[in-house]
Amino acid sequence: MNTTGFDHIRRLFEGPLPPWLTRLARKAGRGINRYGMLGEGDRVLLGISGGKDSLVMALILSLRRRWLPIHYHLEAVHLNWQEYPISDEETDRLAAYFDAIDVPFTQITTTMFPGHYDGQFNCYLCARNRKRLLFTYMKEHDIPILALGHHLDDIVETTLINMAMRGRLFTMMPVQPFFGGLFTLIRPLCEVPESQVRTAVEKLGLPVVKPDCPYKDTNLRLRVKPLVEQLATLDPLAREKIYRSLLNIQPDYLPISLKTGHEYTTVEPEGTDEGP
Ligand SMILES: Nc1ncnc2c1ncn2[C@@H]1O[C@H](COP(=O)(O)OP(=O)(O)OP(=O)(O)O)[C@@H](O)[C@H]1O
């Protein structure tokens, strides 16, 4: 493994943090604490795509162990899709990065399009397949918590898609139990705006190696992104406010919605992003 190139990352674990990174870590910490994501002795699997979000999530979760009074175990898994594999050099760089942030790293080469999907494929099925593979690893390694790199912008975009295209006030949850609580999915960057994630990647030169997704042009989240940017020109806190609106539901609506149980659509339209 080539262990050179990430000494500047290693040093983050010793000396003082630059102020922009402290701000990012604080924002992540606010979300982590608000939803009680992590506690003493927790064992957490980090889902690593090689993209910017999961690399930054891994850095922040590992860095926070420097000052938190609790201990938790982190390990990372990268599903390397046979159909769009990353190169050996890219794998080496990822492994070197994880070595620098002191998180064990495993790469699993596997298929993105399982045979039982019968040629059918979209973003929703991809996310489901990915979770199935990660849950299998977690079961084998006795790890109950899965951390994914979704950030504030992802949650806001998903909220708007579900409102505008499915008629549902519904989004990705910061903490989401699966199989009656056997596994818990957490999104530690749920309060971190994408702009801060980008800053971290650029300033630290993180080894982003995400293969080109064949569905990226049909990805609804990408198409909603400019709308969110436009809203942010009207109010710079638009993202935070859309996110907060989910915690601030008009109480009069709740009994009505519970009584009617009304839904406009119940099926996942083609190419939707993953639900909550
Ligand atoms: N190949 C993979 N192996 C393991 N985990 C993955 C993989 N692809 C995605 N994930 C996890 O699912 C999250 C959401 O994936 P998505 O494809 O929507 O990427 P994203 O939101 O652009 O994030 P990133 O920048 O980390 O790729 C990622 O942040 C990561 O935690």
From TrEMBL:
Swiss-Prot/TrEMBL keywords: ATP-binding, Nucleotide-binding, Transferase
GO molecular function: ATP binding; transferase activity
InterPro entries: Rossmann-like_a/b/a_fold, TilS/TtcA_N, tRNA_thiolation_TtcA_Ctu1
Stored Gene3D superfamilies: HUPs (3.40.50.620)
GO aspect biological process, one term: tRNA processing
Binding residues annotated for ATP, in chain numbering: G47, I48, S49, D53, V77, G149, D154
Leader sequence residues: none
Positions of the tRNA(Ile)-lysidine/2-thiocytidine synthase N-terminal domain: 44-209
Pfam families (UniProt xref): ATP_bind_3
Lineage: superkingdom: Bacteria
Name of this protein: PP-loop domain protein
